[in-house]
Amino acid sequence: MIKEGLYEFVEGAGPVEPFLGKYAVKTPQIFERVREGWARVGLDPSSVYLPMRVEMELTTKCNDTCGHCGMGALPLAEGRTLTDKQIRYLLDQFESIALPSLAITGGEPFTAWRALLATIEGARERRIDISKLTTNGAWGTPGRCGPVFERLEKAGFLDSRLFVPLLMLSIGEQSTPLEHVARILRHAVSSYTGRELNVAVSSLADPADREHRLDQLITVYESAYGEFPHDRVHSTMRVYLTNDRLDGQEEVRRPGHTPVSKWMDRCFDCFAPTVGAYVLPTSLLKQSGDWYTCAAFNVPEKLAFGNLLRERARDVIGYANRSAYVAKVRQGRGLKALHDVVPRSFTETTGCTSFCDSCTLLIDRFDEATGETTGRSAPVPLIPVAALLSRANSPTGKAS
Ligand code: SF4
Ligand code: SF4
After folding, report:
1. What domain count does the chain have?
2. CATH number of the domain enclosing 173
3. How far apart are CA 192 and CA 137, in angstroms?
């Protein structure tokens, strides 16, 4: 298995090698190409924050019921999927900010099959790459696996310009039989080269025992198809995180007590343009339209800067760029930048369970110390989609 974190290419830190890493790119000039796009649509390419990718929650519906679901997915009868109009509107907004790539997630995106195909087709028309598609693999049955791949291909899943698309299979607590997951992997690696399609297995474990299901998957694969394609399959092995946004999530039993200062010192640069191992900066777009500056599972509510179903993308990005916290983290290359604002008497004596939990604590302390108000949680009036469409089509950006 190809371990997560390999082949990290950060802008300004050496050359980019194409076709390497989980989020491989197709050109060594990736950052130049992306910056040209931003300049073309009138964005300042030297802005503190411009997303290389949006992680879009297409639906909150899921056929599964994982206790630690980090996405807050809902049963099929209760979840909601973006409508066709909303998908078109969002894609127009993404095009207006020259968004290079989109990651499609849920819920389970394949429970919203028509919306999934509409998103892939619409992104292709607007020259936005699909750099990741996440699934629990429930469609990997003998009857569905091949036809689903064919339809994805026809919709344009593989027609990316800058990024090699990635199919991410989640096998944490999911109830999908591993035979289905193995069949999807087999089809992917035997039908497409690594330059056409990347595949990854994401295996989250309970932090109390850290047991992952990867070994079981390899056994199932090898009993059906022979040697596991270790050289093609990227792995993401993490543990479940507590997510304050989600009321119904099972509590995470995480041993240990790590001070905030240690998380800060090990934090990577969340907002530096990066490809290969990760795509950064990545925004999170919830099905409700709420938009966050990063796609961490447990992203702090204060990193929400607006709602893309109610506001223009470039306005929301403008709010993020005016955030003193975002600028501080970007300019100081990660959370360690906050040592000169938040005293060590706090960071060395306060514990938490992850980088992003420390981020939540630090934002509050940062706001206290600086008098800033990070985020933009004030409610804004709901604008009907019809008005948004006419506004998106207007050259001035104003409703006509
Ligand atoms: S399959 Fe994924 S989205 Fe669905 S409940 Fe499990 S973790 Fe959540
Ligand atoms: S540390 Fe903060 S900015 Fe970085 S990924 Fe986590 S929540 Fe996002």
Report:
1. 1
2. 3.20.20
3. 18
pTM above 0.90, yes or no: no
Least confident among 26-30, 95-99, 210-214, 341-345: 210-214
Q: Tell me whether residue 303 is in a domain.
A: yes
d(CA 364, CA 361): 6
Nearest CA to ligand 2 atom 4: 270
Q: Atom 1 (ligand 2): residue with closest C-alpha?
A: 356
282-285/53-57 β-pairing = parallel
217 CA → ligand 1 middle, Å: 18
C-beta separation of 300 from 359 below 8 A: yes
In a domain, 358, yes or no: no
C-alpha of residue 360 to centroid of ligand 2, in Å: 8
**R_g over Cα of the chain:** 21
Residue 235 lies in a domain: yes
> How do residues 339-373 score in pLDDT, each as one tens digit?
999 999 999 999 888 888 899 999 999 999 999 99
Residue ranges around ligand 1 (CB below 6 Å): 62, 64-66, 69, 71, 73, 106-108, 136, 170, 174
355 CA: nearest ligand 2 atom: 1
Q: Is residue 243 part of a domain?
A: yes
Domain that holds residue 33: 8-257+271-310
